[in-house]
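subagent[fold] <- orchestrator: predict structure for attached chain, return tokens only, no commentary.
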Amino acid sequence: MKPTLLVLAAGMGSRYGGLKQMDGLGPSGETIIDYSIYDAVKAGFGKVVYIVREYFLEDMKALVAKKYAHVKCLDGTPLEFVFVTQELNKIPAGFTLNPAREKPWGTAHAVLMAKDVIHEPFAVINGDDYYGKESFAILGDWLRAHENTKGQYSVVGFELDHTLSDSGSVSRGICYYDEKHILSGVAEHLNIAKEADGKVYGDNSVNGDKHIVLDGAALCSMNMWGFTPDYFEKSEKIFADFLKVNIDEPKKEFYIPFAIDCMIKDHSATTEVLSTPSHWFGVTYKEDRPGVVEKFANLVKQGVYPSPLY
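subagent[fold] -> orchestrator:
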């Protein structure tokens, strides 16, 4: 069984100032998605599903056709690509869209757009985040081991220290879990940064604590999830309940952690927290770009990746 990689690539980076998914950051102009797909193929994935917006669908298709035409899976078969669009009006029947809404409904809504094209265990990632080859290997192994299970999902947890930005504070969802690494919740922390004393500080948005010291080794979610196909049916029901309350709210969004939290509370699914030694990095701010370019150059020098990648 070859898992599928679902890439969330529909968002514009408001803080970054452009379409990050198409920005060439590697030594030969590679995008972050290029490296994620390379690592996924090495980890045994067989299909890539892109979630995009209609207005740049054709650009993404042309880019993919040019870059990945000769990419093969580990078994020698061509890597398969599927494109699905996320638009704000793609909601269940019976709901009337508020004309004041300008953006789609968030990450969990984006994942639902792929329900008709994914029938195997799959990973979900952000298109503008670098997760590292170890993370894809760990998640790929987990997905293969859960081919015939239902109601068991996973999230890859990155150490908080491995996810900070040198260009400003960040928000992170810190994972809470039991001794078996089963997730009990994800608490959003805001304004996280390492300060002059070497400690990491942030604000807990759940209980309101401000400027508290955070554990740099705490595992946080960077939106790298592992699901089996039954996730779609469960999430769709939660989305309908969400819309009953929020259909008229122009800015409310349906996020993956919210859907997972609902499943935890109603005991319909469990989520295992998988730890990774990889360092996450990304382009949250425009100022992050030079550092990311340098990181990819160093990874090439270390022999982690070839250049050009494809």
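orchestrator: received. Logging for downstream: The chain has one domain: 4-147+222-301. Residues 208 and 224 are 26 Å apart (CA to CA).
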